[in-house]
């Protein structure tokens, strides 16, 4: 029983220290920062328009485009991380298939840039 306690005591100490540190930082940030409340800060903000307006108002398609672009490049990173971890164990086919994937995404990114999809007016 003593061996188990000594092995897990480090984890328990780490958990206690991290909990105390996070509570301390939370309260310090609450005390140090100025608490100036105005109507603009407490209002709901969603995609650049008032969320309590008419539901049939026009909605700019650029918000959807930016969200889709974010998802595409976020998924690219989620594929790159495990690939980079196991790169030395992968065969040559695994390396070149990811290179082709990156080339396709880069060509798509350049095409969107060329078409002006990333420009916000």
Summed up:
By secondary structure, this protein is an all-alpha fold. It has a domain at about 55-120.
Commentary on this structure:
The chain is built from four helices and no strands. It is flat and about 65 Å long. Helix 3 (62-85) packs antiparallel against helix 4 (92-115). The mean pLDDT is 82. With 121 residues, it is mostly helical. Helix content is 69%, strand content 0%. It has a domain at 57-121.
Residue stretches low in confidence (pLDDT < 50, at least 5 long) are none
Number of helices: 4
- Compute the average pLDDT: 82
Helices and strands: which structural class?
mainly alpha
Q: Give the termini separation.
A: 66 Å
Radius of gyration: 24 Å
Q: Which overall shape is indicated by the principal axes computed on the Cα atoms?
A: flat
The run of helices and strands is HHHH
Major β-sheet annotation: none
Helicity range: 55-70%
How many β-strands, per DSSP? Answer: 0
Ordered list of secondary-structure elements with their pairings:
Layout: H1 2-32, H2 39-42, H3 62-85, H4 92-115
Features:
single chain; ubiquinone; NAD(P)H_OxRDtase_bac/plastid; membrane; oxidoreductase activity, acting on NAD(P)H; mainly alpha; 121 residues
């Amino acid at each position: 029983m003593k061996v188990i306690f000594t092995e897990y005591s480090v984890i328990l100490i780490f958990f206690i220290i991290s909990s105390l540190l996070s509570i301390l930082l939370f309260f310090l940030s609450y005390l140090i920062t100025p608490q100036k409340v105005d109507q603009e800060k407490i209002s709901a903000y969603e995609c650049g328009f008032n969320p309590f307006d008419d539901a049939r108002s026009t909605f700019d398609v650029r918000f959807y485009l930016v969200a889709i672009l974010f998802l595409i490049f976020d998924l690219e990173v989620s594929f790159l991380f495990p690939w980079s971890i196991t790169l030395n164990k992968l065969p040559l086919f695994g390396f070149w298939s990811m290179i082709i994937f990156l080339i396709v995404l880069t060509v798509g990114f350049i095409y969107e840039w060329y078409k002006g999809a990333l420009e916000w007016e």
